[in-house]
Write a structure and sequence with these properties.
six-stranded mixed β-sheet, alpha/beta, 418 residues, 14 strands, four-stranded parallel β-sheet, 3 domains, Rossmann fold, Alpha-Beta Plaits, 44% helix
Length: 418
Amino acid sequence: MTEWRNEPIATPDSQVFPVTLADIEAAAAAIEGAVERTPVRSSRTLSSIAGAELFLKFENLQFTASFKERGALNRLLALEPDERKRGVIAMSAGNHAQGVAYHAGRLGIPATIVMPEGTPFTKVKHARDFGADVIIEGASLSEAAKVARDIAAREHLTLVHPYDDTKVIAGQGTVALELLADVPELDTLVIPVGGGGLISGMAIAARAIKPDIRIYGVQSALYPPMINAVTGETRALSGQTIADGIAVKEPGVFTRAIIAHLVTDLLTVRESDIEDAMARLLEIRKTVTEGAGAAALAGVLAHPHLFEGRKVGIVLSGGNIDMRLLTNVILRELAREGRILSLVLTIDDRPGLLAQIATLVGECGGNILEVSHNRLLTGVSAKSADLGMVVEARDGAHANEIKIRLGAAGFTVREQAR
């Protein structure tokens, strides 16, 4: 948790902001029927884990699986006729790209999307499938933004910024209108933060409706640019994060000013926190989220003292994730929980021993997923081998029971680091 809030939180009426509640209400009317009014659901299990009453806003159920299409559509609808004819360009790591591409295609507006290298394949594919001309260029979103601006100037295209645009901010703010209409008793909102468009729009709407509501933003600990912007800190921005959708290095000018005045605090979460939240949402709520989409829940679970006993609205901002990456997240979480363990046993290399070990594991109720032999260990007898096993267990206690049973049978068991 940061400690940057040294003055009373403002309300939209006490500061001059580039977006008002009226703008957000106008955006809601403009996009109505073209984007999903996503459901809000409580979760008894997650609430019990968090010690708070949690209400989840399923923006991962949008057609493009992200809230981003709200702001994108609101911006596209504001184009003048000649701007529509020339077309638009956007830079995006994925979800904004899909929102722009889908609604531009639906409205007959030519769209070009510049995506940085390393953008998840599924997001590139979807943007192209929606009919956009996709350009992969730039090592980061900042570099992709420069490319997009250059093309916009050269070809006279309208730049649709992913977060630092008043129409985009207003469109994203419609999430708060829906959330508070469905659950008016909410006293806290928790929102993922990248460039800040979503939390800015939601903060303006929420504080206009409920001035005392608490609003927390959540960033990946590897990419906390908004914290740097509002506190003057210089935390490093680097590394591979599962939350690529909020891995922004340059937050918006509009958005940082709104956040500085309207947001209660900004929190950070570790990669393991995000992966845990993704796995819990999949297992408990049966919903798929990308890393950024699960960041808000990760923030609640990682900082429970802030939310104890409160009624908390959590935005599941997106669900676009490669299946391979999702598989990795699931397997890693199972390993953390002790439900999958990697064991190494040094054994005599003789017939029948593997069957004996398999029987012991089976009698304990374990399930052997993989087996491997290493006979090339030069530091032990040529009659010995290392037997590697990946074993599925019910939970950590069951895993420990399996290891004890193998040890009691005379085998030396080592658990591989994970």
